[in-house]
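Design job #97: recover the sequence.
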């Protein structure tokens, strides 16, 4: 198996740079695995493909404005810092984060970075490989509020434009609840509150899990052999209530419909050989590639 086996031609002009005016008016392609038939529909038509007893599994991770533009305190040189994940710090200590910095070559241990005219500062504590650093952060006021005001939404690399104010709302699912992702679980972007209510009214179970999307979602597979690709770990959480609902649906003959590969990663990480889901939290490095056998997921909605 080679990475090139998965390549296909996608003209740039067919990559939408802005979303549809209404979330549920995006296009929907439906592949029937049994017959191989393909149907071209509109997203809100998904109600025709789900049946009572099915369970829709949503990833309720919320995107944080992780991209910060600032400067080096000593020289004034421009720098970009991308928040990756919080790192445990001692009690009463300043918050620490693992970040990605650009350009990284001259951002060495001890370097001070400033953002928003000093409203947020970062001191490099440890140099890590591949442009990463561990930094100690200090904010004028609430760290979360300062990041919310100064940060930009980190759009995926196929969006060839700078972030805009509208992206704060549209590059977020309507059910996002738990901050921690540095990229949106994009399959869920097309749901509206009304569409979810309609599905629930039709007897479709709606279950929420968490997988905080990490920087790995932006990294291409850059090796010829997919086996050599290093998969980033991501933090997940699934409650006892969610696990019980999914297991109950399966026992009742319902299908488990994962909204996005992030939901797939959670479910397949916590499922046993029989497909039974266990509640829990942690980090998963699960890397799904042929000839992987799915244990928990029956239907995938992807973007």
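Job complete. Output follows.
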């Amino acid at each position: 198996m080679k990475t090139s086996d998965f390549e296909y031609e996608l003209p740039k002009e067919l990559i939408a740079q802005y979303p549809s005016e209404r979330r549920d008016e995006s296009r929907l392609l439906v592949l029937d695995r049994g017959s191989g038939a393909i149907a071209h529909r509109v997203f809100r038509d998904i109600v025709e493909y789900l049946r009572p007893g099915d369970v829709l599994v949503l990833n309720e991770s919320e995107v944080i404005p992780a991209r910060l533009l600032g400067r080096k305190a000593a020289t004034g040189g421009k720098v970009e810092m991308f928040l990756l994940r919080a790192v445990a710090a001692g009690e009463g200590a300043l918050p620490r984060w693992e970040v990605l910095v650009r350009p990284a070559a001259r951002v060495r241990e001890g370097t001070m970075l400033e953002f928003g005219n000093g409203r947020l500062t970062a001191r490099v504590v440890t140099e890590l490989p591949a442009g990463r650093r561990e930094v100690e952060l200090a904010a004028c006021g609430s760290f979360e509020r300062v990041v919310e005001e100064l940060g930009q939404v980190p759009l995926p690399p196929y969006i060839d434009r700078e972030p805009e104010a509208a992206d704060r709302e549209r590059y977020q699912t309507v059910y996002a609840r738990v901050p921690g992702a540095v990229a949106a679980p994009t399959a869920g972007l097309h749901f509206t509150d009304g569409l979810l209510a309609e599905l629930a009214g039709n007897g479709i179970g709606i279950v929420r899990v968490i997988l905080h999307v990490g920087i790995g979602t932006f990294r291409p597979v850059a090796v010829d052999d997919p086996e050599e690709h290093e998969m980033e770990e991501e933090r997940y959480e699934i409650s006892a209530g969610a696990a019980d609902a999914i297991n109950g649906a399966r026992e009742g003959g319902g299908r488990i419909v994962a909204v996005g590969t992030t939901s797939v990663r959670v479910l397949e990480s916590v499922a046993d050989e029989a497909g039974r889901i266990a509640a829990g939290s942690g980090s998963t490095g699960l890397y799904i590639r042929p000839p992987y056998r799915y244990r928990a997921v029956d239907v995938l909605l992807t973007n």
